[in-house]
Amino acid sequence: MDPLRRSPSPCLSSRPSSPSTPPCEMLGPVGIEAVLDQLKIKAMKMGFEFNIMVVGQSGLGKSTMVNTLFKSKVWKSNPPGLGVPPPQTLQLHSVTHVIEEKGVKLKLTVTDTPGFGDQINNDNCLRPLDIEFLQRLCRTVNVVPVIARADSLTMEEREAFRHRIQQNLRTHCIDVYPQMCFDEDINDRILNSKLRDRIPFAVVGADQEHLVNGRCVLGRKTKWGIIEVENMAHCEFPLLRDLLIRSHLQDLKDITHNVHYENYRVIRLNESHLLPRGPGWVNLAPASPGQLTTPRTFKVCRGAHDDSDDEF
After folding, report:
1. CATH number for position 228
2. SS3 per residue for 157-205
3. Could you read off the pLDDT of 14-51 as tens digits, one per residue?
4. In the 8-state DSSP scheme, what is residue 310?
5. In this structure, is residue 305 part of a structural domain?
6. Which residue would you say has higher pLDDT here, 73 or 175?
């Protein structure tokens, strides 16, 4: 995707660049490397926060996917066959859990959007509602699209569907994560290019283990066999998990805080000048239209409150 194709793109402003001042010659060690130990100790004490919002039609397996992603019962879902109708509401529903692994704590908040798109047929492609929703969303959050229940498609159907979605994203200028304009070096560009080629990821969720060739694997049992969640020959769930947790979690948080939230904050500050002046009025110099999308010291895009730096 070309990050320069449209002016309101959240990618137009860049993250603070590395200092161009040449390094100073040191006469001996002063202990600067100890900062890394300090950061690690602080991180282990405080833990991390991460917010995820899942969007999609009812019955696509969003709850199972989240549970599979973190290998925990993060979200309770109604077992199939009980005939429990999905909630007929458009209110957001969030749950928060603390997950700990090897002493590292993660405060995870998952937000569901029940009822979204249930009356829309998008079997073949993105519909107008999806397109408008994604165009707005990509300026506010980091969007990672997936193909749910990928096991219901043949390999040829999966690739054809992926190609149509990629074309829709390009045609309608929808920037999904990882955005090309945020690649900081050649290594980022190589890794992220491979990920961008596979988006939307074709995933299968399962929170039960099965015995396959003498080993326990996460998978879903069908009359044709076991669909292994972590087997790349079966689905691309490992790519999604690695992106969200193992390789890009901190980058997702940084972009959300430095780009999306700062963009939102600048817009709200400038909107305040349209309101009647009252007690406690602070006279802020209004920004030009260009500054609304390209603040000089930050990138642009997400969040509606201070905790939004932990969303994606």
Report:
1. 3.40.50.300
2. HHHHHHHHHHHHHHHCCCCCCCCHHHCCCHHHHHHHHHHHHHCCEECCC
3. 455 455 677 788 788 888 889 999 988 988 888 999 99
4. G
5. no
6. 175
In a domain, 160, yes or no: yes
Beta-carbon contacts of 128 under 8 Å, excluding residues fewer than 6 positions away, are: none
If you search the block for the tokens 């926060």, which residue do you land on?
49
Which residue shows structure tokens 């979204």?
A: 116
- Residue 20, domain member (yes or no): no
Q: Is residue 122 within 8 Å of residue 130, measured between CB atoms? A: yes
CA distances 240 to 220, 302, 310, Å, are 18, 21, 18
- Least Cα distance to 308 among 257, 263, 234 occurs for 257
Residues recorded for the chain: 312
* Residue written as token pair 């979200």: 75
Q: Do the Cβ atoms of 178 and 248 come closer than 8 Å?
A: yes
Helix (H) or strand (E) holding 255: helix 249-255
Q: Measured between alpha carbons, how far is 65 from 71 in angstroms, rounded to an integer?
A: 9
Place of tokens 């730096």: 309
